[in-house]
């Protein structure tokens, strides 16, 4: 039976390994996916996701996350949630509810506490030190505030054919309180349909959400495009359009996985991602945009370098 998983950035390597083990043992796509994202959220070394995430301009860590079941199309999402390490688990819990499935701010944080998912503090000493240092540099006009916005987004396919998608991020470093990017928004930051495939995004959310790119990739796969064809056709023309009509385009990277286990990636910046499947051990890959709207790939190691 074919199973597969793909996730954004090298930081997902450990989580991809855990997801692969669950899928290899015929575990559920949703369980494997949640474990993948939680692994990244719990590691304070990754300063754009979960515990140890870099805070907003008031020094508070606010996280966004989403979870989607490709079998039922059920979705759950949180935005601006505080005091929660595993925002993805809150999002998955919300996906089981027919209403109230997207909560923001205090409402999301209260729901997490009801589920026993809150923690005393999300701000590590290292993150606070970095925030104070950069805040001083911003105040003196030495750097711009919005530096760092790498989302962990991932997709899983189980041997039974079920699929799931999820994202988690602490968003732009030193963002305004309450700022929400694409990660929690269905169709922009993520989308999955087990009858077709799924996609997830990372980069500058304000620009990614202008194109609803995750849904567009799934739509193109539904019309017969391979994951790679769908990524290339959705991402690069949109980037060109955005530069022409909006004047600029921020970082924009998309991953895709179809229900046959094939994957695709497109990015307008140098971008690492992780893959694993029933016939491929966990691997970190590097993607770069290539001429004529295509993408170049190369392996960069096993994630332990």
Automatic annotation (TrEMBL):
Which residues does the Swiss-Prot or TrEMBL record annotate as the active site? 151
Q: What is its EC number?
A: 3.5.1.26
Looking at the Swiss-Prot or TrEMBL record, what is one Pfam family this protein matches? Asparaginase_2
Q: Where is this site: Cleavage?
A: 150-151
Say if the entry is tagged with keyword Hydrolase.
yes
Keyword annotations of the record: Hydrolase
Record-listed substrate binding positions:
179-182, 202-205
Q: Which Gene3D superfamilies match?
A: (Glycosyl)asparaginase
What GO MF terms are annotated?
N4-(beta-N-acetylglucosaminyl)-L-asparaginase activity
GO CC terms = cytoplasm
PANTHER family given in the database record:
L-ASPARAGINASE, N(4)-(BETA-N-ACETYLGLUCOSAMINYL)-L-ASPARAGINASE
Q: What is this protein called?
A: Asparaginase
Q: Which organism is it from?
A: Bifidobacterium actinocoloniiforme DSM 22766
């Amino acid at each position: 039976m074919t199973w597969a998983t793909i996730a954004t950035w090298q930081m997902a390597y450990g989580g991809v390994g855990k997801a692969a083990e669950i899928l290899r043992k015929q575990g559920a796509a949703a369980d494997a996916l949640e474990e993948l994202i939680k692994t990244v959220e719990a590691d304070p070394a990754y300063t754009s996701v979960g515990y140890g995430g870099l805070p907003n301009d008031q020094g508070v860590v606010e996280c966004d996350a989403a979870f989607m079941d490709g079998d039922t199309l059920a979705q759950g999402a949180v935005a601006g949630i505080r005091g929660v390490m595993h925002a993805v688990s809150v999002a998955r819990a919300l996906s089981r509810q027919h209403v109230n499935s997207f909560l923001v701010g205090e409402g999301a944080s209260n729901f997490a506490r009801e589920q026993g998912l809150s923690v005393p503090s999300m701000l590590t000493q290292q993150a606070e030190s970095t925030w104070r240092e950069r805040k001083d540099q911003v105040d003196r006009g030495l750097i711009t505030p919005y530096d760092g916005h790498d989302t962990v987004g991932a997709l899983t396919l189980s041997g039974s054919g079920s699929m799931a998608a999820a994202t988690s991020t602490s968003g732009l470093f030193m963002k305004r309180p309450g700022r929400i990017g694409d990660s929690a928004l269905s169709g922009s930051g993520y989308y999955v349909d087990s009858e077709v495939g799924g996609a997830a995004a990372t980069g500058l959310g304000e620009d990614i959400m202008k194109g609803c790119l995750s849904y567009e990739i799934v739509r193109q796969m539904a019309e017969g495009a391979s994951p790679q064809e769908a990524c290339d056709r959705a991402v690069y023309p949109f980037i060109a359009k955005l530069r022409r009509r909006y004047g600029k385009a921020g970082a924009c990277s998309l991953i895709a996985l179809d229900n046959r286990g094939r994957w695709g990636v497109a990015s307008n910046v140098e971008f690492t991602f992780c893959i694993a499947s029933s016939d491929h051990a966990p691997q970190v890959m590097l993607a770069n945009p290539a001429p004529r709207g295509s993408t170049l790939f190369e392996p960069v190691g096993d994630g332990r370098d």
